[in-house]
Amino acid sequence: MAITRRPAPATSTPPADRATLRGLLRTRDFRRLLTVRLLSQLSDGVFQVSLASYVIFSPERQASPADIASMLAVLLLPFSVVGPFAGVLLDRWRRRQVLHLGNLARAGLGLGTAALLLGHAPEWLFFASALLVTALNRFILAGLSAALPRVVSPAQLVTANALSPTAGTVAAACGGGAGFLVHQVLPPGATADAALVTVAALLYLSAALAAQRMAPSLLGPEHHPDRPELRAALGRAGRDLLDALRHLARDSRPAVSALAAVTAARFCYGVLIVTVLMLSRYTFNPPTDTRAGLATLGTALGCSAVGFFLAAVISPWFTRRLGLTRWMVLCLGSAALFVPALGLPFAEAPAMAAALLLGVVTQGSKICADTIVQESVADDYRGRVFALYDVLFNVAFVAAAGVTALVLPLDGHSPGVLLGVAAVYAASALLYARWPA
Is CATH 1.20.1250.20 what the domain over 26-222+251-434 is classified as, yes or no? Predict the structure, then answer.
């Protein structure tokens, strides 16, 4: 099936410059979409730090890997059921409205969550509110990815995928860093967490206003008068999703292999995130010093953010010379080497170096997967496929936390876990390299 593309946006950029970063940033519609992503994910970073502080670094708690796994399951697994049906909406609703109204709803929910923290409401109410914010976040990220080919030309797509998701990840890290700084100033507790959630709500509001600046029809999808009404569409959502899966299997084998590889990488990333959390709380700092533990975690995330930025810089260069497949294999294979080399000493400095490199290979492999999916999936299916992509990310992350909870000691010191992660990275690189396109 031929892929339907929106005509390239009008620009005075010379043809030789269109695929460069400078040429991309001259595209007005891309800049506006990027602004929405940056504000949305900056808010996510602030909000996620408030969750981490409340669940993991609260002075009254002794968090374990099982606590982290439970938190992730509560926040992510329900969306893994709803997510594919959200993809049906992404292929019918105007994506610009999804970005505007979704961020507006998150602003209101954020203020409600802050009130729950200040009022010392039951914990289940806090998690329910946080669940809704997180669910909308996954929905919005899928919409941003599905909309990207509508605002850039085909020649700009790899560069756009290097810049846009990476810049969003860096923005989330910056939001997290700001949250860590707040917790170094304010006494740990409900007041600090509520202050962070309020800041996140205001940033979500700014993202909604930024989305409103774009034309309602700019981000698609194309209008098809023969499509059924929304109620009927939701009723046949299961068949629509099966249709999207058949499209992947029949017409998009490169997308299938890329999704499998990036899901395996996400699983490994989830295991390492839980390990770093436990090391920051109980090994690199005294267990009673939650402020220092949060600062160490913030440093690790900052190193990863630098790695994400480096991936955005080098990925277009590597993909032009090696191709998407070889760059993906190089990212996965290198992780199999540096994770045990830098992780097995269980020392803070090598762990920060590993966090930097992990940011490079994680974002580098995602840039490849995003581009492959966008290039090989038809526009009419793209929203559903990216929603499924997001579900794979969530399930892999929760599964990683669940497995880690079973095998990781409280202090995070486990050579077997690191060697197992390295083995998964190596197997993923080998299988992806041998998978027929």
Answer: yes
